[in-house]
């Protein structure tokens, strides 16, 4: 009788351990699969300028996430012609409205093309990053470069801004968003600035490895 009682105790103990393990696995799986909100906060490079929205890299990102059975929400808050100053003026409201988990900041290109102060560009990006971190939002900073014909010193300071900010705030950083696209006439529209539809998959590839790592953290 005592032996049978011990066997029952061992059996129910084993069942309890198994149930607890399954519950823990279920909770972990739920947490991992919880959809996140990703904001693309950029300019014409992300607003599908000159092409259809479905062809843009942001739409391609949403499609790739869906193919991987991820249900993260991608919100494109990019505006053609946007500068870091304009972005800063609406950044706080964007955070309140969408409450994102991740924000990709793709701004600065128009600052450079207009020859605006590199110091001012740095300050604007810096404040946006600070606001995001204050709201516990992870930041992926997409770096930009300006051709040397704007002046070697200016071009160098402009591109280094992104590196310095990423290091200062310990945030994720893509050194050059247009890597593999800029300078390739087959991937640039007739205006000499904006990527074609054919270039959009490359833009996604430039962002994807870092973004998916952030989503899995």
**Largest sheet at a glance?**
5 strands, parallel
Mean pLDDT: 89
Low-confidence stretches: 8-31
CATH first level of the largest domain: Alpha Beta
Look at the structure and name the CATH superfamily of the largest domain.
SGNH hydrolase
Description:
The chain is of the alpha/beta class. Helices cover 53% and strands 11% of the residues. The protein contains 7 helices and 5 strands, in the order H-E-H-E-H-E-H-H-E-H-E-H. Helix 5 packs parallel to helix 6. It starts with a helix and ends with a helix. About 11% of the residues have low confidence.
Present the secondary structure layout.
Elements: H1 2-33, E1 37-42, H2 57-67, E2 73-76, H3 84-98, E3 102-106, H4 109-113, H5 118-134, E4 138-142, H6 152-169, E5 172-174, H7 200-216
Parallel strand pairs: 1-2, 1-3, 3-4, 4-5
Summarize the structure.
The chain has 217 residues and is of the alpha/beta class.
